[in-house]
Every structure is written in C-alpha cells, then in structure tokens.
Amino acid sequence: MEATLWAVAFSIAFSTAILAVACAWWMLLNWVWLKPKKLEKFLRKQGFSGNSYKVFHGDMKELAQTTKEAKSRPISLSDDIARRILPFHHHIITNFGKNSFIWMGPRPNIHITDPKMIREIFLKYDIFQKPRSPLVKLLVTGMADYAGEQWFKVRKIATPAFHHDKLKNMLPTIHKSCNDMLRKWEISVSKDESCELDVWPHIQTLTADVISRTAFGSSFEEGRKIFAVLREQINLLIQASFFAYIPGWRFVPNRLNRKLKSNHNETGELVKGIINKKEEALKVGKASNNDDLLGILMESNHKEIQEKETGLSIEEVIEECKLFYLAGQETTASLLVWTMVLLCIHPEWQERAREEVCQVFGNREPNFEELNQLKVVSNLTLT
Fold first, then answer.
1. Phi, psi (deg, nearest 5) at residue 143
2. 3 state SS of 57
3. More confident call, 325 vs 36
C-alpha cells in the first residue's frame, strides 16, 4: 500500500515537473521566436520594413558595432550629423525607408515620421502609453514619466516655479555663471595672443552651474555633486541599454548594476538633504527668500497641502529636482555649442550678433526686459 502511494506521488510530482519544464520551454520559445516572428509578419503587412528577426539579439550587435565605428571616426562640419548620433537608425531608414523598424532584442521598435500619425499617437495617450523601463527609473522619473491625474497634480504644483517673474529674478545668477566661465577663458588667452580651447567641457560646466544655482540656490555646491553623479549615471545607462532586452539582467549583481543602484541611492540622499534644509526654512518663515526652483516648488507644494491636503511626496519632489537637471543641462549645452559652431562657420552672422549685443547692452549687465530686443541672437538660437 505504501509503495503504491509512493509510486502515485512520484508519478504526480514527475508529471508536474515535466509540465513545468514544458511550459518554461514554451514560454522561452514564444519569447525568442514565435512572438517576434508574428510581430514581424504583422508589421510588414502594415507597410513597415526592416531586417529579418535574428534569434534573441535582433539588431543589437549591428547597432553596437555601427555606433562604435561612427564614434571612432573624426567628424567634419560638413558631415551629416544623423550618421554620427544615430548611425544604425540612419542606416535602417536609408535602406528601408521612413516607415521602418529595428529589433531591440526580441522587441521591434518602430520609426514613425508621418506628422499625422505622430499627432494621433500624442492625442490618444490612453492607448499609446509612455513606455516604462525599470532601467530608466534608476536615472529619473518625474513629470516626464507620469500620466493622468498624477501628471496634472505635479504640473499644477510645479508651474509657479517657471512663472515669468520668477525666471526674471534668475537672470543675475545666470549672468554670474557666464562671467565666471569667461574669466577662465580670458586667463587662458592672456598667457598667449591666441590659444586653442575645447569649449565643450566649459559649456557643460556652465549649464550645470546655472541649473545648480537656479535650482538649489545657496545649496548649489550640493547640486553640483548631484549633477556629477547623474552625468555618470547617464553614461552607465547607455552601457546597460545594450543588455536591457535580456530578462532579469538588471538583477545580475555585476559591477555595472551595482554602480547604477549605488548612484541612484546617492542622488536620492543628496537631494533629500537639500529638501530637508528647505523644509526647515519654510517652518521658520523664510519662504519669501526662496527664489530658486526647489524653494518655489516646495512653497507651492506646501500651499497645495494646506488647501487640499494633497501634494507631492518627498520621492516626487526628489524626481522633479533630478528632472530639472536632465531636461535642461545637456540640451542647453548642446544648443550653445552648436550655436558657436554655426557662428564660426558664418562669421558675418557672428559680427551681426556681436554688434547687436553691444548696441543693446553696451558694457552694462544684461537686463531681462531688453533681452527681447536681441532679434539676431534670438534667430540664431531658434535655427
């Protein structure tokens, strides 16, 4: 009797194990082959073109190789910038047209260039929801990642920080950061009649310094530390993105993943420290001195909590602070450098811009109201 029961139990356990293994293999087969091929067939019927799916890695090997090759070659001012920034995407669009796709592992990414289709996607945000990557959350979430009620709540509380009058008060801070950078350039030139200067790191430092001062006020030194860690985090995430399609890769305790989590925790603690200082200032009635973005955001949040008993959590405030930097630092630095490149290519516009600035401001410190008189300079930054 006992032998019979043992045989039945063993049979059930063995059958369950076989079934579990079979299910696991079926899920794996579906993930690495059946589902991608089904999606590929569907996309081609919809008029999209691209490489045939390659098991597991898709186009990732080619993407990494073309990116490495593009960055290894020197760039000329006459080069097509798209081939440098997104070489593989440029290659796919050139070979397969604007309606094309690439394989990020077993998942296809679609290129959509039709303005009508793009507009439809933006309008139907309940259907075409924002992609949420656990990897990107190690960098920042904030308003750029939110949707629905959460987005409206955060936007309402953050709006006062970007009011015209608040931004106008930040002009002296921006002017000071620019002057600090120009003094360093003058010292470099004073040693010799002329010198070659790599302006990119200087411009990066300038924009980081401006955002540090305008976002964190008297705590801008701590802000610089935060931005240094965030900059490192961006470079690490670029490395990790080539493995993001592998399930469970972010849980592997390798050096890259450990550093990503360490940086994420460090930025959170640094921002929380600055926030705690601001909260103490609010409690003792120093809110009127909060003319930096964080101070204005926290003051607005404090009023919202008093009026409606709802506001931003400490985690949401932290993410908005990180978003201040990521949304403005690198983009502004790139804009300034590209504007300088264009001015060097077109010296006649450089001369016109210089004459306009001298005519409007002379040797005086820039005035916010007079900025609207800079028509040439405004056109340069818009183009």
1. -60, -30
2. coil
3. 36
The structure tokens 């930097």 sit at 325
**Other C-beta atoms lying within 10 Å of the C-beta of residue 231:** 17
Q: Judge if pTM exceeds 0.85.
A: no
| Cα dist from 192 to 185, 195, 200, 201, 227, whole Å | 12, 7, 21, 21, 33
Q: Are 112 and 122 in contact (CB under 8 A)?
A: no
Sequence-separated (6 or more) residues with CB below 8 Å from residue 319 = 140, 141, 142, 145
What residue spans of 241-368 are helical by DSSP H?
255-283, 293-308, 314-345, 347-361
β-sheet bridge partners, residue 104? 58, 107
Name residue 205's amino acid. Answer: T
pLDDT digits (tens, 9 = 90+) for 90-143: 999 999 998 899 998 899 999 888 889 889 988 887 888 877 778 888 888 888
Residue 192 DSSP class: S
Task: Report the alpha-carbon distance of residue 111 to residue 152 in Å, rounded.
Answer: 29
